Amino acid sequence: xxxxxxxxxxxxxxxxxxxxxxxxxxxxxxxxxxxxxxxxxxxxxxxxxxxxxxxxxxxxxxxxxxxxxxxx
Length: 72
Known about the structure:
two-stranded antiparallel sheet, 28% helix
């Protein structure tokens, strides 16, 4: 069972878990009231999203460059 705290959330439609609001919003597509829906895991992966070690969708992986900047 995943623990939801902070900005972590679960979609009530597709039941997927998200690490924050950004990937949650990214996983929705279409126009409100017309054809709004949840993206499939394949569609989310195609956007560069991935699932972290805790099992939550994230908007993008941190690259080695991110960590090198932190070390400088």
